[in-house]
Specification:
Chain B: Keywords: Kinase, Transferase. Chain B: InterPro entries: Dehydratase_Activator_Redct (IPR051805), FldB/FldC_alpha/beta (IPR010327). Chain B: One of its GO terms (molecular function) is kinase activity. Chain B: This is Putative nucleotide-binding protein (Sugar kinase/HSP70/actin superfamily). The complex is a heterodimer. By secondary structure, chain A is α/β, with parallel strands linked by helices. Chain A folds into two domains: 156 residues, 3-Layer(aba) Sandwich (Rossmann fold); 156 residues, Rossmann fold (3-Layer(aba) Sandwich). In chain A, the strands form two sheets. In chain A, strands 2-1-3-4 form a four-stranded parallel beta sheet, with helices on both faces. In chain A, strands 6-5-7-8 form a four-stranded parallel beta sheet, sandwiched between helices. The radius of gyration of chain A is 20 Å and the shape is globular. The termini of chain A are far apart. By secondary structure, chain B is an alpha/beta fold. Chain B folds into three domains: 120 residues, Rossmann fold (3-Layer(aba) Sandwich), CATH 3.40.50; 76 residues; 168 residues, Rossmann fold. In chain B, 54% of the residues lie in helices and 11% in strands. Chain B contains 15 helices and eight strands. In chain B, the strands form two sheets. Chain B has a four-stranded parallel beta sheet, sandwiched between helices. In chain B, strands 6-5-7-8 form a four-stranded parallel beta sheet, sandwiched between helices. In chain B, α6 packs antiparallel against α7 and α6 packs parallel to α8. The chains are: A alpha/beta, B alpha/beta. Chains A and B meet through α4, α5 and α12 of A and α4 and α14 of B. The structure holds iron/sulfur cluster (SF4) (2 copies).
Chain lengths: 319, 373
């Protein structure tokens, strides 16, 4: 039995868990191909015109899997913790996909609403296992292995690596530290982000993303806004930004967002205003299917150069 | 005395003004949003903010310029970003240098204590329980009447013989309601409204029927939807919208308090296509579209602000639903660039299509959906 996993959206945040789980259940896991122009075009064709790129890409990746797997895994992510849910498009994802892709008849829709109680995650796993006629112990074992794998993934991030991009470590001695915030599926899809992170590392900077900041640290900034945001990934981005701003541990912040992203218009503006208050350079990069390499490179280079200059001035003043 | 202002909400603005005054506040009456309002909002709001956000921001700026020192807004909880509206509005306005207090009225269900605290700030006069009761009854009745006058106007406009008569009558009704001082006035006005509408000369035809669904603000605020209902009425179409202010206020406040899922059957209808409640009014859009189809409407128009998340989800589901129920579908996306003329052309084409379809009804030709943009 082959199960297809679209390489899009929540994939980048949770793939070690999902992949390991299905493998250990004894299924053959087929991940859709890395994003390419074809996948992008397919997605643009299928999805509603004013959807954001990540959603379009998800459609494309589902198309990519059609015909070569028995099931296509489409998660309906509702919550993973008590305080927040996900962007409405995550909540309606299976409905959108079912209506937009006409010949999709083997969708494995899994509702993931595990925020309320700790054992919900396991129960969900058990349910999925049962669908494939796997016993309790097989499912339990798969669940444990999946957890381990996710833990390992998180750990790699905390060590300064970026596993989905194949970055194992970064040079600690880099002169410029850059906070790069954005949703995992924006940052870690090299096609969509035009390899932005590797480019920055190539320019000799040390990149810190939200996944590289421990959950505990982020929690400290939870009370920063009168109301907590409603979306898990947005919370993570915003709290990371607050951590950067309050501790001053980075020289500048780059926010990578999608054109027309609903939640981000709020997130981006709040970060911009806060950064301005504290005089920390802030750059927003909005991506869509038309964003070109050239323009992006120039903007990144200009930003990093500016940070370097600023740093020099500061160092000179300290001497 | 506090100088209070709040977002513009159609004719109900007057009702809220009366309410605020009765509670002992000075009111800076928000103006009907104009192009200028929108361009003010667009200038200071983030580029991808949804249209309602921009309009409300623009209204706030105008109110602050006119001397308001307190802004009242309704919060809203849920996966849609509406809940964070206020936080960001406040931040933007403060960064522009305005000084004011923002009072957010959260729906009572989850934040009852906050709500009480906020309301306390707005009550600046001693009122007895009976006063509150009288006030509540008055406001509620007035909201209902406003909705009623509007509903009638939509029903009658496509049938009018003299063009523009309904619109004039409606304006008159709104003025009458605005003048009302107490409950008794309202009861009288209600009868008068009915009479006024009855007097309009009507044709005997069966107009094309179109249901309007979508995000609440752009559905109920004509200034935000380029007066699409009037446009439809002038084309001889009976347009009915799925949401009205009074029912909305009611659902928000009362249903939430008792944790009753409002509009239950609408949600049930949508359930096979839209399995998760996802904030905003996406799910209601789908459910109401089905409801319209079942009631024999010819078409559905979905109004959504550009980048509105729940409506984008709905939009990808609606074409399929409308095809299944054999009802025409026209998605309309609204942003600051949407022009009235362009919209009229699309709406006209849609109406023509529906009329043609009606003729062919027996021929069973299914081509309901216009490709949207
Ligand atoms: S958070 Fe933004 S980018 Fe992500 S799915 Fe929602 S609208 Fe799209
Ligand atoms: S429902 Fe749509 S228009 Fe309303 S606040 Fe949410 S995103 Fe904006």
């Amino acid at each position: 039995m082959k199960i297809g996993i679209p390489r899009a959206l929540a994939y980048y945040a949770y793939y070690p868990f999902v992949n390991t789980f299905f493998e250990k259940l004894g299924l053959e896991v087929v991940v859709s191909d890395p994003t390419s122009k074809e996948i992008m075009d397919a997605g643009v064709e299928d999805a509603v015109a004013d959807a954001c790129v990540p959603i379009k890409l998800f459609h494309g990746h589902v198309r990519n899997l059609l015909g070569r797997v028995d099931y296509v895994f489409v998660p309906r992510l509702v919550s993973v913790n008590r305080e927040a849910t996900f962007c409405p498009k995550f909540l309606g994802l299976p409905d959108m996909v079912a209506c937009s892709i006409t010949n999709l008849n083997n969708m494995l829709e899994v509702r993931i609403d595990i925020g309320k109680r700790k054992r919900e995650l396991f129960l969900t796993c058990l349910r999925v296992g049962r669908k494939f006629r796997k016993g309790f112990f097989t499912a339990y074992n798969a669940y444990l292995k999946a957890l381990m794998s996710l833990k390992n993934y998180t750990h790699q991030f905390l060590q300064g690596g970026i596993p989905p991009l194949g970055v194992l470590t970064q040079k600690k001695s880099a002169d410029i530290k850059l906070g790069v915030v954005g949703y995992p599926y924006m940052l870690y899809d090299p096609y969509l982000s035009l390899d932005l992170i590797k480019k920055l590392i190539g320019m000799g900077t040390y990149v810190i993303t939200p996944e590289m900041v421990p959950e505990k640290v982020k929690q400290k900034y939870a009370g920063k806004l009168k109301k907590t945001l409603f979306w898990t990934f947005s919370n993570s981005v915003l709290r990371t930004a607050f951590h950067f701003l309050e501790t001053g541990c980075v020289d500048g912040i780059i926010h990578v967002t999608a054109f027309g992203c609903g939640p981000d218009f709020i997130v981006d503006k709040i970060m911009e205003l806060e950064a301005r208050d504290r005089n920390i350079p802030y750059l927003t990069i909005a991506l869509d299917e038309h964003t070109g390499q050239e323009g992006l490179n120039t903007r990144l280079e200009a930003f990093v150069d500016m940070l370097r200059r600023k740093r020099k001035v500061k160092e000179a003043a300290m001497l | 005395m506090r100088k209070v202002s709040f977002p513009y909400v159609g004719n109900a603005t007057i009702t809220f003004q009366k309410l605020m005054k009765a509670l002992g506040n000075d009111v800076v009456l928000p103006k009907r949003p104009t192009e200028e309002t929108l361009s003010l909002g667009t200038k200071y709001a983030p580029e991808f903010a949804c249209l309602p956000f921009k309009i409300v921001l623009g209204t706030y700026i105008e109110a602050l310029e006119a001397g308001a020192d307190t802004l009242v807004s309704t919060g809203g909880v849920g996966p849609c970003r509406a809940g964070l509206y206020t936080t960001l509005h406040e931040k933007i306005l403060k960064s522009l240098g305005y000084e004011f207090e923002m009072i957010t009225l959260e729906p009572p269900g989850r934040h009852l204590r906050d709500l009480v605290a906020s309301i306390k700030k707005l009550v600046n006069r001693k009122l007895s329980i009976a006063d509150y009761f009288r006030l509540g009854r008055f406001v509620w009745k007035e909201l209902q009447l406003l909705d009623k006058a509007e509903k009638l106007s939509h029903k009658i406009r496509p049938l009018e013989v003299k063009k523009g008569e309904t619109t004039r009558t409606y304006k008159k009704c709104a003025e009458l309601i605005a003048k009302a001082q107490n409950y008794r006035d309202l009861v009288e006005i209600e009868r008068e409204i009915e009479l006024l509408y009855e007097k309009i000369e009507k044709k005997d035809v069966d107009p094309i029927k179109i249901g309007i669904v979508g995000e609440i603000y752009v559905v109920i605020e004509p200034a935000a939807n380029l007066e699409i209902e009037e446009m439809l009425g002038d084309l001889g179409v009976y347009a009915e919208r799925s949401m009205f202010l009074a029912s909305y206020t009611f659902y928000n406040a009362v249903m939430d308090l008792f944790r009753m899922p409002g509009e239950r059957d609408v949600k049930k209808l949508a359930a096979p296509y839209f399995k998760e409640m996802c904030g905003g009014h996406g799910r209601e859009s789908v459910g109401n579209a089905i409801l319209f189809a079942k009631r024999g409407f010819d078409g559905v128009i979905q109004l959504s602000p550009f980048t509105c998340i729940p409506e984008i989800v709905a939009k990808s589901i609606l074409p399929k639903v409308c095809a299944e129920y054999d009802i025409g579908f026209l998605p309309v996306t609204l942003d600051e660039q949407t022009g009235k003329e362009g919209l009229r052309t699309r709406v006209e084409a849609f109406v023509d299509l529906l009329a043609a379809k009606r003729k062919k009804r027996k021929g069973d030709v299914v081509y309901g959906t216009l490709p949207g943009y």
